[in-house]
Amino acid sequence: MSSPKSLHGVNYAPPRSFKTVLKANLKETLFPDDPFYEFKNEKLSKRILKGIQYFVPICQWLPKYKFGLFMYDLLAGITIASLAIPQGISYAKLAELPPIIGLYSSFVPPLIYAIFGSSKHLAVGTVATCSLIIAAAVQQKVMPEDNMELYVGLFYTSALISGLLQTALGVLRLGFLVDFLSHSTITGFMGGTALIICLQQLKGMLGLKHFTSRTDVYHVLRAVFENRKEWTWQCAVVGVIFLAFLQLSRYVRKKKPNLFWVSAISPIIVVVAGCLFAYFFNAEKHGIAIVGKLNKGINPSSIHLINFSPEYLPAVVKAGIITAMIAIAEGIAIGRSFAIMDNEQIDGNKEMVAIGLMNIVGSLTSCYLSTGPFSKTAVNYNAGCKSQMSNVVMSLCMLLTLLFLAPLFGYTPLVALAAIIMSAMIGLMDYEKAVHLYKTDKFDFLICMVAFFGVAFISMDMGLILSVGLALIRALLYVARPPTCKLGTITNTAFRDIEQYPGSNETPGMLILKLGSPIYFPNSNYVRERILRWVRDEQSLENSQRNEIEYLLLDFGGVTSIDITGVETLLELRRCLAAKSIKIILINPRLGVMEKLIATKFIDKLGKESVFLTIEEAIENCSFSLNSSSQAKREELEIA
Amino acid sequence: MSSPKSLHGVNYAPPRSFKTVLKANLKETLFPDDPFYEFKNEKLSKRILKGIQYFVPICQWLPKYKFGLFMYDLLAGITIASLAIPQGISYAKLAELPPIIGLYSSFVPPLIYAIFGSSKHLAVGTVATCSLIIAAAVQQKVMPEDNMELYVGLFYTSALISGLLQTALGVLRLGFLVDFLSHSTITGFMGGTALIICLQQLKGMLGLKHFTSRTDVYHVLRAVFENRKEWTWQCAVVGVIFLAFLQLSRYVRKKKPNLFWVSAISPIIVVVAGCLFAYFFNAEKHGIAIVGKLNKGINPSSIHLINFSPEYLPAVVKAGIITAMIAIAEGIAIGRSFAIMDNEQIDGNKEMVAIGLMNIVGSLTSCYLSTGPFSKTAVNYNAGCKSQMSNVVMSLCMLLTLLFLAPLFGYTPLVALAAIIMSAMIGLMDYEKAVHLYKTDKFDFLICMVAFFGVAFISMDMGLILSVGLALIRALLYVARPPTCKLGTITNTAFRDIEQYPGSNETPGMLILKLGSPIYFPNSNYVRERILRWVRDEQSLENSQRNEIEYLLLDFGGVTSIDITGVETLLELRRCLAAKSIKIILINPRLGVMEKLIATKFIDKLGKESVFLTIEEAIENCSFSLNSSSQAKREELEIA
């Protein structure tokens, strides 16, 4: 039997060396975006310059910076500073830290980010979620009222650990680990956290003095209702007014996007109004608590507060790892989405280093974990920022505040902060996204709901872990069950899934299957069983439609990887089918798969005459021998 | 612009209902082999009969059983019984159980397996690996010399838990979980266990009285050398002679496969020779210890020994789960490989139920964990067994032994048992397989080595967990980095990877990429970056080769699944490319992917005119509009 017509030979080149394959795989895994492509074919001096610009982006943009751009950045910087002050104080209060630390955390990190960061739009600041996660972890070891110095020190330590981890992940180009936090997980997690943070604000809104350090819905609500005697109506009235104002300003922004500044400055308005109200009406006497004394002065060093004692380390490391991942997931996703709007690209690993460095330096200068929160970045973008300079401007505004205005903010009523947090959190509950998930992908919806309810009713870490676990199970289930399908002819050269294109024709004597990818140990038994079932189904059809298969054509075009267990399964399959007088034909094995099939001698066992580059070639060849065998049978009969 | 020629329309049918998809997915996940296909289109009475035959295979094979077959099964049964006696006693000794339990465990379980099992070749018995794992776990709670009744009870409890778990996995059709133990893991794990079991036999070979309960190489070797004073040369001489005899018989089998019975009966020869030697030469006085008193009588009930007290439960459950998985992995893999030699098929889930039931019943009748070990099954197969009847014969032989001969085996010298175990374990170290792995797949080799060294130098559970973890990371890395490749034309209708087939031509103005599967949250960033890099690489070529891309053709033929994050990534990609005036064209989205793209309105946003069923159609269409646009440009120029 000779092949009637060979269009193009199958490539049986000997497998590439292990080193080549490893290098190619490492490149795909760690440098998929080829970050150093600009360095190729350049002189050494130019390479060094480009290298510095690559690692310290400020060297790239500052020399080209024009005064015309500064006007935009100045405006944007002042706007985000006006947001940073109330948010900083609020989130510090949420974490039960001294409020001034919230202000410190908006001074140093933005400066560092401006040097190393490559996103033009990211506005640096603290975030509610991470504040609460660290607080929950640290409070298991020490309560702020027992030892504030230790409590604060553990926050810095956790920020240092986060920073180190973020930098390390970035330097080792392991940023893809963050991708394992899927959008669905983040949607659910953010929603759940927003819900419990909202409920916690009932403490501030109702002026409670006693509360729980637990974060789940049940304990928080119980704490609210058990302390009914502490409810203060004055507090509630003021809180509701503030909240209504903030929500109204958000509503305005939603209706008229170019009035975004209304909602951007509304928190500072609330704070200023609150301060004036507290100062002139002596609010404290009416049961409305205020922030209390805030000292002037910039960030003191906090190196002496870093605490690695083994008693606290496990809790701090756990919080550090979780918040590091959440912070970079949020920071990079947000930087990236705004960059895409301007057709620019962000290198996730580089961003990770920038965020990591800013947290390392921050943790040594009395700042706790910061990243690029969505709300602030959106305001920065809308306010027309043009470069990282807006972060510098914000930082300078914070400097002025720390040097001169800090004491004034001491009059801020806690209820105003509660209203600010509540309003921000309501915006984070993205129920439209959840509905979208429900409509389009039930599994993604489930992942999202597990995160939401896990966070709301168990704990934040548990919710996150369960949801990530479920997402991983989905990925593993995919690997465990790669879909196969039966192909039919729709034209002479095109073969498509017969389920999807029911009109397509089958070829007598043959069964054409397209295999899914990969063929790995978790699915190799499945692949064998499934193929045998296709064969059985084909053979057990009613007489009229029955297809006596002599050839099984396996389209390997979609299979991109196979392991040893997979190859062994193919051998078993070959043995099973040989017993039924069915021959296996391989179509278009891809590079990596072909190399594995050659290395394991599978191709030798199968015979090179059973491998084809296209389905039509294979069909032509097989029909040829099908015809000649039936011809032979006829001749035999005639002779007999 | 109108399509010049449409060969076959793209299928835009509305997505199937959630219920349909869920049902299809569950079927693929849990019933890939469609076990009930024989029941379709049958009458109720026939269905019930088939159902009984399905769940209790003895109802199927016994009525058809012929006396002619029985002669074969009788011979095979006697042969495996002669192996079962020394192995049973040896492995019980290995687990520091009373030796009689090893004999009990070869009486009841084979009977149960003969009723429910569907493999004709599987010979039931205890295995060294599992004996050692359970012993290591139980000895953390109680030592046999302190409380033998409790010690034995925990073994039964662990067997009961294993049996329940195995049955449950089988009934719930979750057998595929076992597939996550890859061949490479099992090879390394078996090798590592064989090594440490071999080393442990130095205790018996050297006649030591004090030893360690740790299993790792370091502690075992230290125990051997620390007790140098206990070394008994008489013991060592006898041991080496026995071991040499056993290895010689294995060598004979290897050289002349039809002399397999020589190695099959050599263990019982060693035991009998040892007994005679011990009896006539009064070996005990020369420092050669013997097994000691064995009582006549069949298995007593052990229900009263089952112990679920919370103090011991965690260790017992852990051992039960690990050994359950190993036992079914071994039993099913072995049953399956022998079935394939005879062109039969084994339903893994049904086998799991059979093995589970035999362990449940066994644990209540003084047997500990048993499965179908490789050595015994191979002997059974070679001895010519024809059905499960050989297990019944073995069981009856064990009955006779228990009733009449047991006391005689009390004279067996321990050193003979050590030689039998050692010889069996040497056969389990499959270094050829390891070399094969090294040559063909470095990652599989790594997985294997992690299991081997983990077991040898840390602990058995740790070695297993690390290796399975590494294998899972491989599967996840696959999902994180599905390969894309650039396609070139090799014929008008065939498009292949340009790296694999360097001769293929590119189409000017277009870039054709074939995407890997799946497009999921862990890889969506990668997929976007990688595609953008392909585009950049294409555009940054030297002037002469430069390809000004106007169309990016994405071949979705190999993509079998996409999630929400993946769809969002495609949207981002579309926005990025639109900025570079590049249009995305989708080719042949598969059924599930198309449904997701329709449900998320991606197709609406992209436009149905940008989706094609084949690459050639897409090229034809795009060339058409490329030409007309350059025509228009020329005309514009002419007018100007």
Topology:
2 copies of one chain form a homodimer.
Chain A: H1 18-30, H2 44-55, H3 58-61, H4 67-94, H5 99-104, H6 108-116, H7 128-138, H8 148-171, H9 183-200, H10 202-205, H11 217-226, H12 233-255, H13 260-281, H14 313-341, H15 348-364, H16 374-382, H17 389-409, H18 414-428, H19 431-440, H20 442-457, H21 460-480, E1 485-489, E2 495-497, E3 510-514, H22 524-539, E4 551-555, H23 564-579, E5 583-587, H24 591-599, H25 602-606, E6 611-612, H26 615-639
Parallel strand pairs in A: 3-4, 4-5, 5-6
Antiparallel strand pairs in A: 1-2, 1-3
Helix pairs in contact in A: 4-13, 4-16, 4-17, 4-18, 6-15, 6-17, 7-14, 8-14, 8-15, 9-18, 9-19, 9-20, 9-21, 12-13, 12-18, 14-15, 14-16, 19-20, 20-21, 22-23
Written overview of the protein:
2 copies of one chain form a homodimer. In chain A, α22 (524-539) links the parallel β3 (510-514) and β4 (551-555). Chain A is mostly helical and 640 residues long. Chain A has 2 domains: 59-477, no CATH class; 485-639, STAS domain (Transcription Regulator spoIIAA), CATH 3.30.750.24. Chain A has 26 helices and 6 strands. A 6-stranded mixed beta sheet of chain A has the order 2-1-3-4-5-6. In chain A, 61% of the residues lie in helices and 4% in strands.
